[in-house]
């Protein structure tokens, strides 16, 4: 039990919801696939114990807390198959305080832990910087959000926990020698790596830092070496930087960088071709091209004098789309690290999206082509479905649930008819012997309208009444046959509310 409590304290996260994932098989890439979803209930100790005992489904914890802080985060490397030893060696070589775990699918979760809660946005930026140094830029970073809108149904993304099945797990931490770590060995690793505060790598340039005030990706590549097959692309990116940083004499610098940071250096003919290309026009950094793509840190690069910030404001960063399955649904999206709530129309229509950003973020995103906008939204939706970031809404946020609440209110809480003829006065009448309540559909419609509920046609209303056990019938009222509906009575709230006892004491 002591180990479980220690584990729970290390991976503590959001206390009002958790994630769960049941594996059903593997896809063609070897990644485990199944069904995942967010449960809007506290992650109880019993759920943690079942995870430890290996009872499917496993437990996922949302790292971001209700106050938008966290004590852990992770880089999700979902390449299959994956050379874990290479990641472990890179983490060790760079001196990063991270622990690598084997994920449920055979990939890697690279964790960072802090002793005290830090802002979720700070953890995101720190792990983004670490991912760039490791050549794993663009990977999913947890926490996925810098803030969540708890009061509006937003929960954030969960990450499946390690050590499913306890000591018999395949989701273990790696020791620095590449061997699997037992729980006790993981706890020892944790004590060694947990941070008092996050010290950002590359946050401050040193005197010997290459690519001064330039893209962090190029700094990392010059320090670690350009991967095989990437030297020409790498030199082209270096040339773009040098032309920005040294407008006069950048050609000589290109030759200097070639001999200093490329092993072996490019031939003079290859270098000459690259130089002529760069001479023709001012290029922007090709951030989506290999090799700089894997070492990209856009937020830090924007702060650099010769980084991507000089290329203009560009489009806002959109990420971490999640869906709250109410009726109609709500959507939550990160825009430049800020969380906003959107209705479907505001997400579908670019113009309405821009208006929402102006109203909530004081930001007007630039207009992009319709086809580009559709591609962007489809990518966000695809990522959302893959991560199963769809939160089931509570019953009272659905149209069906709200309708049932209003029917119950109309039949139990409003003035009851003393006899059946009072149905003609717009009241309901309850036959206590048969435990059936009678009403006219037009009186129910008026009640719905008074409560601003106009989302249901008459046929759908009839269907919902049938789902509540109702059926149409005829009653003789004031000597005439009248069409009504009869429903089983709802249970009434008979327990009285506690009344505070009066006191003579002055409260202040």
What's the number of extended β-strand segments?
A: 18
Provide mean pLDDT, rounded. 85
How many domains? Answer: 4
Distance between the termini: 47 Å
Structural class: alpha+beta
Q: Oligomeric status of the shown chains? A: single chain
Determine the CATH topology of the largest domain. Answer: DNA primase, PRIM domain
Apparent shape = elongated
Rg on CA atoms, Å? 30 Å
Strand content: 15-25%
Account of the 3D structure:
By secondary structure, this protein is of the alpha+beta class. The protein has four domains: 2-193, DNA primase, PRIM domain, CATH 3.90.920; 216-296, no CATH class; 318-392, no CATH class; 396-488, Arc Repressor Mutant, subunit A, CATH 1.10.10. The chain has 16 helices and 18 strands. A four-stranded antiparallel β-sheet has the order 2-1-3-8, with helices on one face. The longest helix has 17 residues, at 370-386. The radius of gyration is 30 Å and the shape is elongated. Residues 497-508 have low confidence and may be disordered.
What are the defining features of this structure?
20% strand; four-stranded antiparallel beta sheet; single chain; disordered C terminus; DNA primase, PRIM domain; alpha+beta; elongated; 508 residues; 4 domains
Any chance you could write out the topology, listing elements then pairs?
Blueprint: H1 2-10, E1 18-26, E2 32-39, H2 45-53, E3 58-61, E4 69-77, H3 84-94, E5 99-102, E6 108-119, H4 120-133, E7 140-142, E8 159-160, E9 173-174, E10 180-181, H5 183-193, H6 216-224, H7 231-245, H8 250-261, H9 268-280, H10 298-303, E11 318-325, E12 330-335, E13 338-343, H11 344-348, H12 350-361, H13 370-386, E14 390-392, H14 399-412, E15 429-431, E16 436-439, H15 441-450, H16 458-467, E17 471-477, E18 480-488
Parallel strand pairs: 11-14
Antiparallel strand pairs: 1-2, 1-3, 3-8, 4-6, 4-7, 5-6, 9-10, 11-12, 12-13, 15-16, 16-18, 17-18
Helix pairs in contact: 7-8, 7-9
